[in-house]
Amino acid sequence: MRTEVPQPLLALTADYGHWAKKNITEALHLNRTHAHDMRQWQRLVLYALTDTCAYTFTLAGAIAAHLQQTGVEECDVRRYLQTPDLNRYVTQPALDLLDGAMGRPAPDERSCCNWEIGRVIVGTLGDEPA
Prior knowledge:
It is built from five helices and no strands.
């Protein structure tokens, strides 16, 4: 039996995927344009790559958390993430992002940022990132 993907997960994937793609594209551009200057190349390329990682790790963690919360077997989630350690991805920022996207109550003040981002992304359902 097939189940549709919840719209908030589709919205998070579209938005975070957009920003990850934008950053990896920037890293490739910087790779070409700064090949003559190692100092600039290393700094700028690594900034773009680590930004890409931040988006993909948080998104993967939010999706994995949703799978856990909806009863997907933990061994399957670990296999999909290709890691024995779910905590590598299912972090507090990923949980907060998911909670915001799914319309759950706001967390305490220390972690509201990702919750708010999740709310904003879902509030723009149907809008493609620019």
